[in-house]
Design brief:
InterPro entries: Ald_DH/histidinol_DH, Ald_DH_C, Ald_DH_CS_CYS, Ald_DH_CS_GLU, Ald_DH_N, Aldehyde_DH_dom. It comes from Aliiruegeria haliotis. This is Gamma-glutamyl-gamma-aminobutyraldehyde dehydrogenase. It is built from 16 helices and 22 strands. It is α/β, with parallel strands linked by helices. The protein folds into two domains: about 280 residues, Aldehyde Dehydrogenase, Chain A, domain 1; about 180 residues, Aldehyde Dehydrogenase, Chain A, domain 2, CATH 3.40.309. The strands form six sheets. Strands 14-15-16-13-12-18-19 form a seven-stranded mixed beta sheet, sandwiched between helices. The chain has a six-stranded mixed beta sheet with strand order 9-8-7-10-11-21, with helices on both faces. Helix 2 runs parallel beside helix 8, helix 3 crosses helix 7 and helix 10 crosses helix 11. The longest helix is centred in the first third of the chain and has 22 residues. Bound molecules: NADPH dihydro-nicotinamide-adenine-dinucleotide phosphate (NDP) and ligand LOQW3P2E. NADPH dihydro-nicotinamide-adenine-dinucleotide phosphate binds next to helix 8 and helix 9.
């Protein structure tokens, strides 16, 4: 990559970074009301990076109040769409101008590789914000099929004050997936970043004010799930929550909503994503490259990671040989080294969760060993269909392999999961590919590739992987919009009134 720096240069940038550590509410940084802090740790070294404001219910209440004030006086919600567009495009440009520092900050907090931060997370974050900004003034209201005696308009309105609860695996990109359409729609937001990765969201909120976003529209309240996430989920003046994270926590947000003001809830949750490789898959080396990328990219800390390989017995050995060859090329190491493909897992606690699965297979082909810190080598193992390793979301670089004799068996096995986020199928027969894609119960199915689609395609899950809406695409704007019907009677003043 020609634009990448050297390992030493990245380390030098890391040493010089100014770290944002307090909440960002109503346009300024401020400590938690209690004055409490918590440590944020660099998972690659175990060192404390910073002490972050440990906010609580009082801070959430304050931030929601400021967001409400901003929403009601219309300083953003009633601005003309082209004006909102200009501000968000300026924000995307400012992120671009600060991309290197943000990439290093993201890598330091999360253990993600600088290679991915520089070449995927930052470019995709910028692209996402621009895409939603550009969409703002191209989304039309509607008029229902007309009749002689009435006209009905269906107008979009911003949903109001929105809580955005984020995960740690793509801190910037998930922020962009949510603030892009939410701010485009005219909402005010209160962001709760994951406690492992608060700092990039804080910095982006500061850049947003520099871009011209009025104060109070974009607030970030760092802290733990129970201390910040729950009060946000239960707040009577929050109109909607959009959440990405585990299915277990997603369920809690449904309860919070039911117990409070029945706010709208959109949930993007876990996955145990199958990749079916049939005997007619074609070039197995190409297939192997996709499987390895799907399974080990971002250390497998990806809700749509390929975590189950369901392979036809006739090609299993040949495919595995190629998968092992590709996986061995994924170097494990310091996330700030641009040659590293597999960085550190996000935390020691998460490392321990993933490591506990490493002996769960019936035969391990590669990996399994770990070395200090929070590193797990790409691991490929055969598993029994009903085993925990075959069913549970591991969220690490672990690929569980199962063998089948045909398409129907493969589909049945692929669908035998509580999740339904993503799936892929490899075959050179278009009919089998489409039959398979239709039968797989997942929000995104890729054929002869691994991927999540792009900003133009909706992203979300079936079954316990998703609820209430989709991220990405114009579909994401619907999450943050209310539809209002305005019905106008066209009858003459002296016509009989009909109900
Ligand atoms: N679908 C996805 O993209 C993701 C899936 N996961 C899955 O979840 C597992 C656990 O990871 P984890 O970080 O604990 O994921 P969580 O679902 O717990 O975290 C996601 C967000 O929800 C917050 N949260 C946690 N508990 C509560 C609560 N009781 N009330 C309100 N908000 C809460 C978290 O806060 P905080 O962490 O700051 O306390 C974080 O901001 C992973 O191993 C993986 O399997 C994890 C991340 C992303
Ligand atoms: C370049 C696209 C990356 C998409 C990652 C999607 C993951 C979402 C999640 O884990 O929640």
């Amino acid at each position: 990559m020609e634009n990448l720096l050297t390992h030493e240069e990245y380390k030098s940038i890391a040493r010089g970074l100014l770290l944002p550590t307090t909440a960002f509410v109503d346009g300024v940084y401020r400590p938690a009301a209690s004055g409490a802090t918590f440590e944020t740790i660099n998972p690659a070294t175990g060192e404390v990076l910073a002490e972050i404001a440990a906010c609580g219910a009082e801070d959430v209440d304050f931030a929601v109040g400021k967001a409400r004030e901003a929403f009601e006086d219309g300083r953003w919600s009633k601005r003309a769409p082209p004006e909102r567009k200009d501000v968000l495009i300026r924000l995307a440009k400012l992120i671009n101008r600060n991309a290197r520092e943000l990439a290093v900050l993201e890598s330091l907090e999360s253990g993600k590789t600088i290679l991915d931060c520089e070449t995927v997370d930052l470019p995709e974050t910028i692209h996402c914000l621009k895409w939603h900004a550009e969409a703002i003034d191209k989304i039309y209201d509607q008029v229902s099929p007309p009749s002689d005696n009435h006209i009905a308009m269906i107008v979009r309105e911003p949903v109001g004050v929105v809580g955005l609860v984020l995960p740690w695996n793509f801190p910037l990109l998930m922020l962009a997936w949510k603030i892009g359409p939410a701010l485009a729609a005219g909402c005010s937001v209160v962001v709760k970043p994951a406690e492992e990765t608060s700092m990039t969201a804080l910095r982006v909120a500061e850049l947003a004010v520099e871009a011209g976003l009025p104060k109070g529209v974009f607030n970030v309240v760092p802290g733990t799930g129970p201390e910040v996430g729950e009060p946000l989920g239960r707040h009577m003046d929050v109109d909607m929550v959009s959440f990405t994270g585990s299915t277990e926590t997603g369920r809690r947000f449904l309860r919070y909503a039911a117990d409070s003001n029945i706010k709208e809830v959109v949930l993007e949750m876990g996955g145990k994503n199958p990749c079916i490789v049939l005997e007619d898959a074609g070039n197995l080396d190409r297939v192997a490259a996709h499987v390895v990328n799907g399974a080990f990219w971002n250390m497998g800390e990806n809700c749509s990671a390929t975590s189950r390989l369901i392979v036809h017995a006739d090609v299993k050995d040949a495919l595995l040989a190629r998968i092992l060859a590709h996986a061995r090329e994924w170097s494990v190491g310091d996330p700030l080294d641009p040659g590293t493909r597999v960085g550190a897992l996000v935390s020691r606690a998460h490392f321990e969760k993933v490591a506990a699965y490493l002996d769960a297979g019936t035969r391990t082909h590669l990996g399994g060993a770990t070395e200090g810190g929070a590193w797990v080598h790409p691991t490929i193992m055969d598993v029994e269909p009903l085993s925990a390793a075959a069913r549970e979301e591991i969220f690490g670089p672990v690929l569980a392999v199962q063998t089948v004799q045909g398409l129907d068996e493969a589909i049945a096995l692929a669908n035998e999961t509580e999740y339904g986020l993503a799936a892929s199928i490899f075959t050179t027969d278009i009919k089998r590919a489409l039959r398979g894609a239709r039968a797989l119960r997942a929000g995104t199915v890729t054929v002869n590739s691994f991927g999540e689609g792009d900003i133009s395609t909706p992203f979300g899950g079936y079954k316990t992987s998703g609820f209430g809406g989709r991220d990405n695409g114009l579909h994401a704007h619907d999450q943050y919009t209310q539809f209002k019907t305005i019905w106008v009677d066209l009858a003459d003043d002296d016509d009989e009134a009909v109900g």
